[in-house]
Amino acid sequence: MTILRYADYEPRGAEFDADVVVVGTGAGGASTGAILAEAGLDVLFCEEGGYHPTGSFNPYMTESMSRLYRDSGTTSILGTPNIPYVEGRCVGGSTTLNGGMAYRAPDHVLDDWAATTGDPTLGTAGMERHFGMVEESIHAGPQHATSVGDDNRIMYQGAQKLGWKSAVNTRNQSHCVGTNNCILGCPTGAKQSTLVSYMPRAIRAGARCLTEVRVERLLIEGGRCVGVEGRAVNPRTRAYDRRVRVRARAVVVSAGAVHTPYLLLRHKLRSRELGRNFLCHPNAKIIAQYPFDVHAWQGVSQWSQVREFHGDGIVLAENMVPPAPLAATIPWLGREHMDILERYNQTLVTGCLVEDSTTGRVHRGPLGMPIVRYDISDWDFQRFIFGTERLAELHFAMGADRVILPYRSFHIARSMDEVRRVTPQSLKKSDLELFTVHLMGTTRMGSRPESSVVDLDGQLWELPGCYVADASVFPTAIGVNPQVTIMALGTRIGERLATRLMRCRHAAAAA
Ligand SMILES: Cc1cc2nc3c(=O)[nH]c(=O)nc-3n(C[C@H](O)[C@H](O)[C@H](O)COP(=O)(O)OP(=O)(O)OC[C@H]3O[C@@H](n4cnc5c(N)ncnc54)[C@H](O)[C@@H]3O)c2cc1C
Ligand code: SF4
Q1: In angstroms, what is the span from residue 152 Cα to ligand 2's centroid?
Q2: pTM over 0.90
Q3: Closest Cα to atom 6, ligand 2: which residue?
């Protein structure tokens, strides 16, 4: 059997062997594992979440969130302000739940990585082949016009009216019909998450996947990483009560930018950088209501992005939110709350994403949980106020009658004069309401052990045999949606590791 679950593990403990064990099946883990398996290596994935195939996805929020999201989507970054975040815990990781925007890191970011690491292969030209491989694998391409709804047309036309630059998104989809259920799992299989792209490729090449297994410890012998140990979770009782151990020639940790450093921090590693450089592209939600139906739930989410302010690290875009999470995240009670929700069909939810100008840190917290600390900078604060004002301007230019601003102290604006009353002086940072879905940077890649955690092959400087391949290895924030860049780096790390392991295998055979 290639996909195993709790019931398949011996109650007294299960033992496995492989060439490579990959922890996590999201953007980083699945892409790396597929490359390794296709190179002829015996790959075994350990995934904390369950296997939920396309046919099981549905629009029921509470049921889907508890099955597919870590802690049912209730995780938060602590700081000023606190920033709620969500990530996937299922086969496919966060790619199973993401919006499907498929962008490469911009050239200036890649060229900066090449310059700071001294490795030209991390630059635009050097990464070209890896990006091409990823885009082919996940069908990154333009959206068919019939799957684009009025909400996106308003955004696009609004930018045109104001003379602002827009970019039409490429998305990782094949025959997407715009059902707009991406964040609860694509029910048609159109979205090419790793669940339906890289994982089937890896499994076709012979890989196995242990699901419902939380890896809790690395096995280290003679200063080398030789496997992992964890426990399987009983899906009914949620008790972690079956021990699972995997021995391997190499371990790839791809548990995401919070859980990768959290797992590594459980060991006596000395790197000062481990857990630091946490980046998250914080995002503010600006809700507009129009005097006519927008039907934002019809058609795909975020077909285009406003790129006019990208030079300042600001991206503005539509972000369709289903009624249940919208109800949970608007601040009023009773009649005022109903007043907003009754107009759901006339509502357009948009976001202002700001590229980090600061960093946070992942710590080991009590009760077996990571703690993430991050405070936005003064400049980020000013950019949120600026970006919010620009989105309000676009909505009023397109005929909105009110805009709900992301500030605790001042929520509804009916004109631009009201919006302009908000200045960096009239608010506190803690008044901002933010959220994020892009977690990056906590085991950064580099060419020197003093300033990075992994080397340019993704291997931990201080633990041979242990590699990282996920969003944690980003040296800096990239300012655009990260999945394609994570997969490109996963491809690069997978290829380099495959070459190394195959060379050892051939040398052993020759001897
Ligand atoms: C709602 C949402 C919308 C998004 N929209 C977009 C978008 O449109 N475009 C885009 O580019 N990006 C988007 N993103 C971000 C993108 O999906 C992530 O950046 C990317 O998936 C991160 O890849 P990763 O490999 O670092 O981690 P993940 O994809 O999160 O994978 C980590 C995996 O590791 C598993 N794991 C964690 N700890 C353990 C452990 N101890 N043992 C075993 N397994 C473990 C997790 O269960 C998970 O499956 C979105 C994210 C979300 C949540
Ligand atoms: S909008 Fe497209 S990709 Fe998203 S869930 Fe619907 S069919 Fe799938």
Answers
A1: 15
A2: yes
A3: 179
